[in-house]
Design a protein that fits this description.
The first copy, chain A, has helices spanning 16-31, 46-57, 63-87, 119-126, 152-163, 197-206, 213-222, 274-284, 313-322, 324-327, 354-364, 388-398, and strands spanning 3-8, 35-40, 92-95, 102-104, 113-116, 130-134, 137-140, 145-147, 168-173, 194-196, 226-230, 238-241, 253-257, 260-269, 292-294, 301-309, 331-335, 338-344, 371-375, 378-384. By secondary structure, chain A is of the alpha/beta class. Chain A has a domain at 3-174: Carbamate kinase (3-Layer(aba) Sandwich), CATH 3.40.1160.10. In chain A, 49% of the residues are buried.
Chain lengths: 406, 406
């Protein structure tokens, strides 16, 4: 008998039919003898609809009130799931984040978990019930309702799995696992049986949308076994685990991210402190800088390029321009039409040819590299957004990912 | 400076435009120097939609889960109201029923208030804010979410007004006050300036839908001044108060109720204990019996007639039929096509001609009276549903309610 925390995303509980399917699945798990704790997101696009309503009444809604509003979504989902379970004769109880013992800081709309006091969930399990917990919710020490942010249900599930010492945390979503690349772009993409936390984290940072990076970090830190799988096919998906069961693969996946823009501050004097000052100003304004590349100096001046999310471009441009005198910079340019293409694999640590093969493959296909950034297990190249799908396909082929079995 | 508890019903907060209108009204009250506490129902028809969703996943949803589901509705309304207030520069905070200190019994879907611990609301007021409280919500002593039932927001408002010792409790609704009769039926109907609690309670019991009877009872018991008024015209409405400021009127209003059916148990032996046994069986099954009339005995047998809500007719019929041997009854008939027409007024206590005028007026217009029931300040006649509007109109005219000024 295993204790499983099962998290169901918005599309998995989008309507009464989907909710009944989830309830059927839980009933089958129970019949097999497993103990189950459910974590649910808001139904379908409900969170978006609530955000739209907030935008209708306020230009800049207060975080405390946003959290009160948004948490209505998961509340509906957990109540309906619990009703559907009762309908199948499965005894269950729904719990808000607060009732489930999620104590957070007071950073509304993006709160951090401070403590998980899972006594009520444990008592519910011990009474033979299926606790159904609202994802992404908590309560601050001032007794205000808090929201953990988009994707926060994954974090709720992982944190509960840790608090309950569960055997696994299953993240049910609308994809059937983690793939070597986006199967919509490369039909030969393969679903992996397993992947290491380090690789999963690099993939998330490189733009892979699911699971949420924060939940992977939490699972990694607390050694929670993650299983990313489908609530539509119910087939086994991808395990994310501490120890990779196979020998580290050279490259596991190719990930593209077109949510960022490139900014270049041109003609910056090549002297100490300029970059520090630039990125301090950006950080102070909460601009989320990703890649940073500084070119080699020519005649004592250099260019500094960096990427930021699309919705922060104008803010970042403003900061660069208002400080360009201070930097002695020649000008600032931005380019929204870029894509960051990354290859990721723990095996590249001991194989120096990985980056070279990436550069060569892109060059052979006439795809120009605008920026390069590397970590121990990742190489990222910024390319023209129009060439991104092609870059992903040729790299997927070059590393022979279609014929590997992870 | 007055402290006002203002309750806004579903149609008053149905969409972002309505919510902004309510926020504007509150801002004006504050500018006049009043302190305001808001209580809000769920937006528009949201509670009905949530009930429909529950019906989609379960034939017989558990009360605990219904309450978790339904309370999502007011949560959205209070968060959006608070945002709209902030947008106008009015500092405010939303509170769930639990956060507002509403402790209830565990009778889910129709919980009763046990205690109101309004410390947080008081602190919010003292900090110069407008607390916005979710109507009809509470928390049980077992820390489960509870719902006070439909119309429960009125009760929340009255209970808060009592707990805060407010100067008045304003119930904003989609009608502009309490009328001498339904103005859709009788165009000459007049809005009353004031009405006594006793009369308002009789009107509610006679079928007047707003305000909810329970909230009037609560206000009466705790001496909370009620003001029933419109959130669409914002004009002054009807005060419900302990002491009627004018001399008690003979008749104040005519109310029709077509939500009940008549059951008649025929040929019952006229001996002690039969009626007691019949109504004990009905009460044990939670059948909500309203009027009861027993005809004069003829040849030692009599008929017992009573009214029940439409949705309890088949249940009541079943009980009567299954016990008809025990009663020695001749048979049971039911009639859904009835309407209960009542005239109400505290002045009738000292004026014996009121009932006679009612019977005469109905007789003059050829409207047959099927049942009669009276209290100290009310006379009710059951008539054919097809004649109910006509009955209301002729009675309204007979008591000259169109030309009185209450």
């Amino acid at each position: 008998m295993a204790l499983l925390v099962q998290k169901f995303g918005g599309s998995s509980v989008a309507d009464p039919d989907r909710i009944r399917e989830v309830a059927n699945h839980v009933a089958r798990c129970r019949n097999r003898g497993d103990q189950v704790v459910l974590v649910a997101s808001a139904m379908g696009k409900e969170t978006d609809e609530l955000l739209r309503l907030a935008g209708d009444v306020s230009g800049d809604p207060l975080g405390r009130e946003m959290d009160m509003l948004i948490t209505a979504g998961e509340r509906k989902a957990i109540a309906l799931l619990s009703m559907a379970l009762h309908e199948l004769g499965v005894d269950s109880e729904s719990f808000t984040g607060s009732q489930a013992g999620f104590v957070t800081n007071a950073n509304h709309t993006n709160a951090r978990i401070v403590d998980v006091r899972a006594d009520r969930i444990l008592a519910s399990l011990n009474a033979g019930r299926v606790p159904v917990v609202a994802g992404a919710q908590g309560v601050s020490q001032e007794a205000n309702v808090t929201f953990l942010g988009r994707g926060g249900s994954d974090t709720t599930a992982v944190a509960l799995a840790k608090a309950l010492d569960a055997d696994a945390c299953e993240l049910y979503t609308d994809v059937s696992g983690v793939f070597t690349t986006d199967p919509r772009v490369v039909p030969e993409a393969r679903r992996m049986h397993s992947i290491s936390f380090d690789e999963m984290l690099e993939m998330a940072a490189a733009g892979c949308p699911k699971p949420a990076m924060r939940s992977v970090e939490y699972a990694h830190r607390h050694n929670v076994r993650l299983h990313v799988r489908s609530a539509f096919t119910w087939e086994p998906g991808t395990w994310v685990t501490e120890e990779d069961p196979v020998e580290a693969a050279l490259i596991r996946s190719v990930v593209a991210d077109d949510t960022e823009a490139k900014l270049t501050v041109q003609g910056v004097p090549d002297k100490p402190g300029i970059a520090a000052s630039l990125f301090r100003h950006l950080a102070d304004a909460d601009v989320n800088v990703d890649l940073i590349v500084q070119n080699v100096s020519t005649d004592g001046v250099t260019d500094i390029s960096f990427t930021v999310p699309h919705d922060q471009v104008s803010q970042a441009l403003g900061i660069c321009e208002s400080h360009s005198d201070e930097f002695g910079a020649g000008g600032v340019r931005s380019d929204n039409r870029i894509s960051k293409v990354s290859v990721i694999g723990a095996g590249m640590k001991s194989n120096p040819g990985v980056a070279a093969l990436m550069f060569q493959t892109l060059a052979d296909n006439g795809i120009n590299i605008e920026m390069i950034s590397t970590s121990a297990i990742r190489v990222s190249c910024v390319v023209d957004q129009d060439r991104a799908d092609e870059a992903v396909a040729v790299l997927h082929a070059a590393y022979e990912l279609e014929s590997t079995d992870f």
